[in-house]
Design a protein that fits this description.
Layout: H1 17-20, E1 23-26, H2 42-47, H3 49-55, E2 59-62, E3 66-67, E4 79-83, H4 90-102, E5 106-111, H5 121-127, E6 139-140, E7 162-165, E8 170-173, H6 188-203, E9 208-211, H7 244-254, E10 262-266, H8 272-279, E11 288-290, H9 293-296, H10 311-324, E12 332-333, H11 343-347, H12 354-367, E13 371-375, H13 396-408, H14 418-424, H15 461-466, H16 471-484, H17 487-490, E14 492-496, E15 503-510, E16 513-520, E17 526-529, E18 540-544, E19 555-558, E20 563-567
Parallel strand pairs: 1-2, 1-13, 2-5, 5-9, 9-10, 10-11, 12-13
Antiparallel strand pairs: 3-4, 6-8, 7-8, 14-15, 15-16, 16-20, 17-19, 18-20
Helix pairs in contact: 12-16
Length: 569
């Protein structure tokens, strides 16, 4: 059955707030600093809540602000019920939550439960074999008389996924940094502790969770060696593991039975069929997942091999997910976040056509079926940064990549891998939010924990809000348009010209409502011929990133990175 065969009408819409919402992601360390220590804080976010309200967003996804030694910028949690001093305290958090709720903006907290920090009390007691905590993590004896790791699994951040602990005299598993030991989800006491913590946060008044690498919590029994022929060794034993759906169904029953909660599962390695088991009506109960296919399709063996990408392949992936979850499930819509480079530098043009391509990419994510996620600064058209020296890097993944490339002899110097770091490195997303052309982009009165992008003097909030034609104002119009038109939320998706190398065109259909979106992903003008199946007299221009006629013509030329949205009046 195609989407056309199963069109929803207005009367049949199953309305859900998070389907109609636009969500803004905040990376607190880089958002707004109020105490001059160079690190963003909760008071700084509260100070900017009116900014979020003016933009028109419906919810905030807040990256971790919990107590943490910051080995992975907060994704290594040492106390789930405490706020890191750098960000403030629980009173600051509650004031921030109140400020959001007063403006009808919901709050989604980051849930990191595949692993904790090695400084968490659970791990400290586990390494001492203290009572029930003995089995809270994944401990094993080594091979070759204990001198080598228990198996050949690799860490996502590079190197072995095992570290030997002198205190316990065993190896522990860490799929990420060595300071991020994996929890043992086979232990029911671990699951009970996690559910108790989740319920505690819900009692504080939050509106849902974004679940970090949630599909990695189940590992194959016996932890066998992984396939070494390309890719991440061992991935087949911890991506979408054997008990993952049992654990998530149990989590749903114990914590997430309230269907008004938004639950977004970060699920690397899932395909469309996998996603249905997580989000479908008969699935695990998640609202949606973050899938990675559309942002990793040009990777070779690993992310650092990313290169030229094809719009034809990109469109095919988007269409597959749009149609694959049309009847069962729901899409998340994003092109960048705290773990990805800036989308303008990745999929657009961060030079001559920065603003045009930023608007075009925003048009794409706000006119597909699914829930759009805006990453802080995206609404300004922020770009990738320059890192002239490895000393300027802060991301543990990038630092490890550079060190290993030098150690293996794959690179003679940092300059040999600099292009890769500056193209896909996570630090690109973590440079401070660009509020003004004041020193350090108005982010802090001190020295920022990571350097500001050098273009902040021209790309910033103050300039953008003063310019009616800016990316910021275009995003404001996009959000309003999506709020006003159900067809852009619930309408069926149909792709046109799948093999065109520059044009991305599709319709959205809901009952008698129709939308046509036409995008030119290139610097050369191209002609678009409106398909015969589209009645031109039923459409008029709703939004464009250039000045164009109100009524569509049978054919028209699209300029560089031009975007047009036509809707039924």
């Amino acid at each position: 059955m195609t989407p056309k065969d199963n069109l929803k009408t207005r009367a049949a819409i199953d309305r859900t707030w998070w389907k109609e919402a636009v969500i803004y992601q905040i990376y607190p360390k880089s958002f707004n600093d109020t105490d001059g220590d160079g690190i963003g804080d909760l008071r700084g976010i509260e100070q900017r809540v009116d900014y979020l309200d003016d933009l028109g967003v419906d919810a905030v996804w807040l990256c971790p602000v919990y107590e943490s030694p910051q080995a992975d910028n907060g994704y290594d949690i040492s106390d789930y019920r405490s706020i890191n001093d750098a960000y403030g305290d629980m009173d600051d958090w509650r004031q921030f939550l109140s400020a959001l709720h007063e403006r009808d903006i919901r709050l989604i907290m980051d849930l990191v439960v595949n692993h904790t920090s090695d400084e968490h009390e659970w791990f400290q007691r586990s390494r001492r074999r203290d009572g029930k905590f003995d089995d809270y993590y994944i401990w094993r004896d080594g091979t070759n008389d204990g001198d080598d790791p228990p198996n050949n699994w690799e860490s996502v951040f590079g190197g072995p996924a095992w570290t030997y602990d002198e205190v316990r005299g065993q190896w522990y598993l860490h799929l990420f940094d060595e300071k991020q030991p994996d929890l043992n989800w086979r232990n029911p006491d671990v699951r009970e502790s996690v559910y108790e913590m989740m319920n505690w946060w819900l009692e504080q008044g939050i509106d849902g969770f974004r679940m970090d690498v949630i599909n990695l919590i189940s590992k194959t029994e016996g932890l066998p060696d992984g396939n070494e022929d390309g890719g991440l060794t061992g991935a087949e034993h911890f991506f979408n593991g054997p008990n993952i759906h049992d654990y998530l169904c149990e989590m749903r029953d114990e914590v997430l039975s309230d269907e008004s909660l938004l639950t977004v599962g970060e699920t690397p390695g899932v395909g469309v069929d996998d996603a249905r088991t997580y989000v479908g009506s008969d699935g695990d109960g998640l609202s949606m997942v973050f899938q990675f296919e559309h942002i990793t399709f040009d990777h070779d063996e690993h992310k650092w091999d990313a290169g030229d990408w094809s719009l034809v392949e990109f469109k095919a992936i988007i269409a597959k997910w749009q149609n694959g979850l049309a009847d069962e499930g729901w899409n998340s819509l994003y092109l960048n976040n705290h773990d990805q480079p800036r989308m303008v530098s990745r999929f657009g043009d961060d030079g001559t056509y920065r603003e045009e391509s930023a608007k075009l990419l925003g048009t794409l994510t706000h006119t597909l079926q699914g829930t759009p996620f805006i990453y802080q600064g995206e609404e300004l058209g922020m770009t990738n940064a320059s890192f002239a020296s490895p000393d300027e890097l802060r991301d543990v993944e990038a630092v490890n990549f550079v060190e290993e490339a030098l150690k293996r002899g794959d690179a003679a110097s940092y300059d040999d891998v600099r292009d890769a770091v500056e193209y896909v490195g996570r630090d690109n997303a973590r440079t401070p939010m660009q509020w003004s052309d004041a020193p350090e982009s108005g982010f802090t009165d001190g020295e920022p924990w990571i350097g500001c992008n050098s273009n902040y003097e021209t790309v910033n909030v103050e300039h953008a809000r003063a310019d009616e034609n800016s990316v910021w104002h275009y995003y404001q119009d996009l959000i309003k348009l999506r709020h006003d038109r159900d067809v852009l939320v619930y309408g069926a998706f149909d792709l046109f010209l799948p093999n065109h190398p520059a044009i991305f065109a599709y319709t959205r259909t809901l009952g008698d409502e129709r939308g046509l979106v036409v995008l030119n992903f290139g610097t050369d003008p191209v002609e678009f011929v409106v398909p015969d199946s589209i009645a031109l007299d039923e459409l008029e221009l709703a939004l464009a990133n250039t000045d164009v006629p109100k009524v569509p013509r049978p054919s028209f030329e699209l300029g560089p990175y031009e975007a047009r949205v036509y809707l039924t009046p």
